[in-house]
Amino acid sequence: MKKIKWGKSIVLVSATSIMLALTACGGNNENNKGAIGTTSPAASEAPKEKVTLRVATAYTPDHPFGPAIDQILTEFTAKYPEVTIEKEFLPVAELDKKLTVDRATNNLPEVFVIFPGASTADYAKENKIIDLTEYLNSHIDWKDGFISGALDSLRFDGFTGIYAAPLGAYSTGFYYNKELFQTAGVEPPKTWDELLAVIDKLKAAGVTPMTIGASESWRAEHLYTALFYKWNGTEKAKQILSRELPYSSPEAIEPFQRMVELVDAGAFDKRYIALNYAGEVADFNNGKAAMRFSGSWAVGESTGPNSPQGFGDKVGFFPFPYFTEKEEHKDSWMGGVSDSFAISTKAEGHQKDMAIELVKTLTSSASSKIIIEKAQDLTAVKAEVDPEKSGKLIAEVSKAMSTGKEFAGDVSAFEPVKAANTKLYDLTQAVLVKGVTPEDAAKQLDAEVAKAQ
Question: Tell me, which fold does domain 20-168+338-385 have in CATH?
Answer without folding.
Answer: D-Maltodextrin-Binding Protein; domain 2 (3.40.190)
